[in-house]
């Protein structure tokens, strides 16, 4: 690709990179959005928040807040054509606004950095289950029991016990965290065309094939009717329930990779010809479908095993593996399931590391590879404390004196601080920046929509997003307000 007119001298440490095609951009952005947030967090949140009400509110959050912000972020990047922080500065400068608005991307890039530190720990658990199911598959091939359930001869308690055993075992958990972070660093270090889009264009189509295959399998062999009823049961009493709304919006942010400088960074690699409104719509639609279908993929299997769907974060790692015990070809499908989760997690962690890496390398003029190793290495070290929060540091509450972090260990604090404060704060600043500060001629020229739709987008960004995000921030910081 030609880097004509872009900042950075070709061949220098900070030469602006480009996606090699629109398909690569869409796959990388969808790859960023679709991750553990969809497969692990969404079903867990939906399960704990009563299914239907959460799902309906979630869809509303994506359409009215997530999508307009997604378009705002990609627009900033595509116009600025630099790191996220530098891109905001470009837009601010051209609009006659203060370059201090770049703080929105600084907050986002730091959030990404903190999130990837624990994201890699959780992805390490995924690697562990790939190993467990692969071992079980070999055993079942050896015993000629390929079509039966997984973990033949073991009790449900034994299988459920795999997760607490893993959590107690740093000798397994930490090397897997290192392995996953190492892979992420490797991909980011190889650059946009050589690394990031390569994994996206191969892994995302593979992900979709596995995902649809396993969902169809669950629909036929599991309890699909009960899952459907659970996911879409409409209970108006729960719909306007503060905590449910709060977690739905938080989940929408996490899942769409918003407020994390990622979509600004990825937008900057996009060519002028790409219609950002269409692309953003496609990203949001794919991400939301995957989240909902993930519920329809996991719940039928769990319901069929008669286990509880409201187990929260342990749903995917404890309840689901045990559920594969009663499913036909359980070890094979279980293995494919976790391989699929790994694909989704890697394309997301790559985006989480790329945003802060790109910021730092522009700031200091370092090479991409060097920056990725340094930033990823530091994230690995911080992630160790999150891993230890599942065992020896489980009852160490570093910010116990602050109400919102009461009885939260290190992992809980980083998760809560990024999800409840940093992402919504960055999103809020983005909405105000695009809605009120950025030059309208500039945003109008970039966004690819016109007429009534354009006015509606402006209304959402200038009014609804700031109001909703302010409420969310206040409620997130003062949880006692909603009891
Ligand atoms: N969107 C991805 C997921 O849902 O897993 C990864 C992610 C990106 C999470 C950015 C959080 C975030 F701020």
Please describe the topology of this protein.
Elements: H1 22-33, H2 36-48, H3 52-80, H4 84-94, H5 103-142, H6 156-160, H7 162-167, H8 170-189, H9 192-221, H10 224-232, H11 236-239, H12 242-255, H13 262-268, H14 276-304, H15 315-323, H16 330-364, H17 368-388, H18 410-437, H19 440-447, H20 451-477
Bound molecules: 4-fluoro-L-phenylalanine (PFF).
What top-tier CATH class fits best?
A: Mainly Alpha
Profile the largest sheet. Answer: none
Q: Using only CA atoms, what is the Rg?
A: 22 Å
Q: Which ions, cofactors or small ligands are bound in this entry?
A: 4-fluoro-L-phenylalanine
Range of strand content: under 5%
Helix content: over 70%
Shape: globular
Mean pLDDT: 91
Number of domains: 1
The total of helices stands at 20
Q: N-to-C SSE series?
A: HHHHHHHHHHHHHHHHHHHH
Q: What is the second-level CATH architecture?
A: Up-down Bundle
Query: So what's the oligomer here?
Result: single chain
Low-confidence stretches: 1-11
CATH topology: Amino acid/polyamine transporter I
The secondary-structure class comes to mainly alpha
Our measurement of the CA-to-CA distance between the termini, rounded to an integer number of angstroms, reads 54 Å
């Amino acid at each position: 690709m030609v880097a004509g007119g872009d900042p950075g001298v070709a061949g220098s440490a900070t030469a602006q990179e480009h996606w090699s095609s629109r398909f690569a951009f869409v796959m990388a952005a969808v790859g960023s959005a679709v991750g553990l947030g969809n497969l692990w967090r969404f079903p867990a949140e939906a399960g704990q928040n009563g299914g239907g009400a959460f799902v309906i509110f979630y869809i509303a959050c994506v359409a009215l807040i997530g999508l307009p912000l997604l378009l705002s972020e990609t627009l900033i990047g595509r116009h600025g054509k630099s790191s996220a922080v530098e891109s905001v500065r470009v837009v601010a400068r051209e609009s006659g606004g203060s370059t201090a608005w770049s703080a929105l991307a600084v907050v986002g890039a730091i959030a990404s950095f903190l999130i990837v530190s624990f994201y890699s720990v959780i992805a390490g658990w995924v690697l562990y289950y790939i190993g467990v199911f692969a071992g079980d598959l070999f055993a079942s091939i050896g015993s000629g029991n390929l079509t039966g359930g997984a973990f033949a001869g073991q009790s449900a308690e034994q299988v459920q016990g795999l997760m607490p055993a893993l959590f107690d075992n740093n000798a397994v958990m930490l090397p897997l965290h290192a392995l996953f972070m190492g892979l992420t660093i490797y991909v980011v270090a190889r650059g946009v065309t050589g690394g990031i889009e390569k994994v996206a264009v191969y892994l995302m189509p593979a992900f979709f094939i596995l995902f649809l295959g396993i969902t169809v399998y669950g629909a036929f062999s599991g309890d699909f009717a009960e899952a459907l009823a659970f996911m879409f049961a409409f209970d108006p009493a729960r719909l306007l329930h503060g905590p449910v709304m709060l977690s739905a919006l938080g989940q929408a942010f996490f899942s769409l990779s918003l407020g994390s400088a990622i979509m600004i960074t990825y937008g900057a690699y996009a060519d002028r010809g790409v219609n950002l409104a269409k692309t953003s719509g496609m990203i949001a639609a794919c991400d939301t479908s995957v989240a909902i279908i993930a519920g329809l993929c996991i719940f039928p299997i769990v319901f069929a095993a008669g286990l509880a769907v409201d187990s929260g974060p342990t749903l995917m790692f404890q309840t689901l593996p045990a559920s594969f015990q009663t499913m036909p070809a359980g070890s094979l499908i279980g293995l494919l399931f976790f391989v699929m989760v790994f694909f989704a997690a890697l394309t997301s962690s790559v985006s989480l590391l790329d945003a802060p890496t790109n910021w730092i390398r522009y700031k200091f003029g370092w090479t991409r590879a060097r920056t990725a190793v340094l930033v990823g290495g530091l994230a690995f070290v911080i992630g160790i404390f999150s891993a230890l929060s599942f065992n020896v540091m489980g009852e160490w509450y570093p910010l116990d004196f602050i109400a919102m972090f009461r009885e939260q260990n290190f992992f809980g604090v980083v998760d809560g601080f990024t999800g409840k404060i940093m992402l919504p704060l960055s999103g809020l600043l983005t909405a105000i920046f695009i809605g009120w500060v950025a030059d309208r001629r500039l945003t109008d020229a970039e966004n690819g929509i016109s007429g009534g739709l354009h006015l509606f987008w402006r209304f959402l960004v200038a009014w609804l997003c700031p109001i909703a995000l302010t409420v969310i921030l206040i409620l997130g910081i003062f949880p006692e307000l909603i009891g």
